[in-house]
Design goal:
Helix content is 25%, strand content 28%. By secondary structure, it is of the alpha+beta class.
Amino acid sequence: MKFTLTWLKQYLDTTATLDDITNKLTAIGLEVEGVEDPSKTLAGFVVGHVISADKHPDADKLQCLVVDTGKEKLKVVCGAPNARAGMRGVFAPAGSYIPGLDVTLKKTAIRGQESNGMMCSERELCLSEEHNGIIDLALDLPAGVPAAPALGLDDIFIEINLTPNRGDCAGVYGIARDLAASGLGKLKPVSASPIKSTIKTTIGVTIADEKACPLFLGRLIKGVTNGASPADAQKMMTMAGINRISSLVDITNLMCIGMNRPLHVFDADKLKGDIHVRLSKKGETLAALNDKTYELEDGMIVVCDDGGKRVIGLGGVIGGVETAVDANTKNVYIECAYFDPVLIAKTGQKLQIDSDARYRFERGIDPAFCAQGMEIATAMVLERCGGEAGDVVQAGKAPDNTRTISYAPERLKLLGGMDMDEARQKEILTALGFDITASGKSWQVKIPSWRHDVEGSADIVEEVLRIAGYDTIEPITVRPAANDKRAPMNDLSQRAIRARQLLATRGMYETVTWSFLAEDRADLFGALEHQNKAALTLTNPISIDLSVMRPSILPNLIDAAARNADRGISDAALFEIGTVYRSSDAAGQIMTATGLRTQMAKPRHWSGAPRAVDVFDVKADVMAVLEACGVKTENLQITRDAATHYHPGRSAQLRQGTQVVAAFGEIHPAVLATLKREEAMAGFEVFLANLPPVKRKGTAKALLRPSPFQPVSRDFAFMAAANLASDVLTRAIKAVDKQLITDVSVFDVYQGKGVPEGQKSVALSVTVQPVDKTLTDAEITALSDKIVAAAQKAGAELRKL
C-alpha cells in the first residue's frame, strides 16, 4: 500500500513530522516498508529548454539538440520522435544516474556527434511505462529549475506492509483514522452530502444472485467533459505510482485508494439497455481493460447489458473495453457495488488478474459506505467534468456485518498485561469507530462496519494495546509459587532426551524430517506389513510425495543422506527422534530413535585400512542407546526376524520377552537398488515406547563394592551348527552361575579347513569374578564342566584338538 504524505494530510490534520508518522505507523501495526523522497532521487535533473533540433548527419532516427540547462548550452543526441525546438523537458547531465536504465551517464560521442547528457522519458525516470517520447513539460517553466517540482514530485511517499485482516487500511482514509486514534492528529470529516438529481437515471439494474452481489448502485451523469485531471490530482497519482488515464478513470482510482471504495465508470452511450448482474457461464468471454481477452468459467460475477447477454465487466475485478470511457465520452454511468469477496478471490486466481479493486474486495471493504461513496464520487465528477447528475438506482441492499461484543475493561490487564483506566480505553475505541454502551462491569461494544476482522473481546484488547503502544506495556516477572512443583518428566520423554544426547556424543547429527512420505517409499519400509495402511493414507496430502504417514523414519534419513552425498558430503551419520505410525490409534504410534550410517565407517588413514559401515556399527549404537535408557542388554534376546527392508543375513531384532525393543542391520540391497543408491548403508530403530520401565530405588547410586579377589579368565572353543546364533551360547553359559560369571564374549568364529561342512568353530572368553573367597582349582574345574554341559545342551560340543 503506497500513498503520499500530502494525500494522508488531506484526511489527517496533523503537525507531526515524517519520522513521527512513520514510527507511529509501525507501532500501531501498519509496518512501514519504505519512505522515498523523489526529489533526492532526481537531484541534479533540471528543466531543459531545447533551443534547436537538427537531423543527425549519420543517423536517420537521431537528432542533434542544443539544450539550455539554465547555466550553459549543451549538445545532446536524442532519438525521441517528439523532440523539437522550443519544448521543455527533463534534462539529465553527464554523471547522472538514470534509474529506469540502471546506468550512469558519461559524456560521449554518438555516431560521431558530441552528447553531454540526455533528455528523459517517463520510463527512464521510473514514473510510468511511457517510452514513446521524452517528457513534454509546460512551456512557461524556466530552464535550469529542478525537475522534481516541475514533474510534481516534490512530495514524499510512504509504503506500508498491510496484513490481510486490515482491509480497512487499504484506503488512505483508514490509515488516517488509525493515526488520529493514536493521538497523532485529528481526522478530517469527508463530505458525503446527497447530490440533488436534475435528470432521471434511465439505466436500470437487476441482480440475479444477491449472495454474489448483495448491493448495486448506479447513477447516470450527462454532459461530462472527460479531459485530464487537475494538476494536484495528477501529482498525487504520479507519486503513488497510479497511471493517469483520464479525469473519469482517475476519480475511480482516487476513490479506490483514498477511500477504499472501488468504483467503475461506463460510457453510458455504449451500454445496451439495463445492467444485469449474474454468475458467468463457461465459455463466455470478456475483452478487458488490460488489453487481454479472458474466457470465463462457471460461477464468476459478471456485469452485463443487452438483456444480460453481453459481458461488460467482471464484478470487483476489472471492466471491459467495449463500454470503457474515453476522451469522447459525454454521458457516464457510475457503478458502486458490493460483491462477494470469496468469489472475487477465486475469479482473480483462476484468471490471474491482479487489480486494485480485487485487492480491496478480497480483504474486505465497508458495505455500509456504498451510498456515501457514490455521493463523493458524483461530487468529484461534477466538479472536474461538469454535467448533470441523475438519481441513484439501487438493486439489493447492503449486508449488515456489524456485531456487538461483550467486553469487560479488566480483560486488558488479564490478556494484555497493561493497566489503563476505563475512560482512556473508551476514548481509544471510540476514536477507532467503535460504539460503546456501558452495562455495569461489562461494555457492549458495537463493531464498525469496516472492521470485519474484530470478532471477540481478545480482538478489542488488541485494538487498545496497539493504539496505546506495545512498548508501554510494563515488563512482568513471573515466578512460580514456592509450593508450585513441576510434574516429573515421564519415562518416554526421559528416554528421548537420553537417546538424543547419547547419539550426538557418538558423532551422529540430528535431523527433523516430515512425518509423511510417498506411498511407494512407505511400502518399501513396512506399510504393506500393516493392516491399517488405508487409515494412514492422507485424504488431503500437501504433496503427492507426502501422502502416507511414515511407518519408519529410515527412508527419510536415507533421502537426507543421499542429498548430502550428491553434493559431495559423504559418510553420513544421521539420527532422528520421532514417531512412526503402524495404525491410527495411540498404540500404533511409537516414539522411535532411528539412526543411519552410510559409506565409510573408518576413513582412509595410515594407521589402518578403511572399511564400509556394517551391521556391527549400528548394533553398537543400539546397545549404547538401550544402556543409556536403563535397559540391561544382557537380558535381551537377539532374533533374526528383522523387517524386510533390512539385509536378511546381516540384521536382527532385540526382544525382551515378546516385546521388540530394537531392530538394526544393513539396508537390503534390493531396497537400495529401488532407491537408486549404491553406497553402503546400515540403520537402526530403537522403539523407545516399548522399553521396559526403569525401576527406581531413589536417586542415590549403589555403593561401589569392588571384589578384593583376582578375576579368572578361561577360553573355550565349541563346534556348533553354522546357523546356531552365538547369542544362544553366551546366554546359556551366563545362566550357569550369574553371580560368578560376569562376562561371556565371542572372540573368534571360524569356518574352513578342519571344520566339517555346515559347522563352525566358536571361541569364547568367560570371566569369573570370585566375591567372597579365592576359587580352588577343583572349583574352577567344576564350573568349567558346567559351562561345557550348558553349551552342549544349547547345541554345541567342546572342540577337540
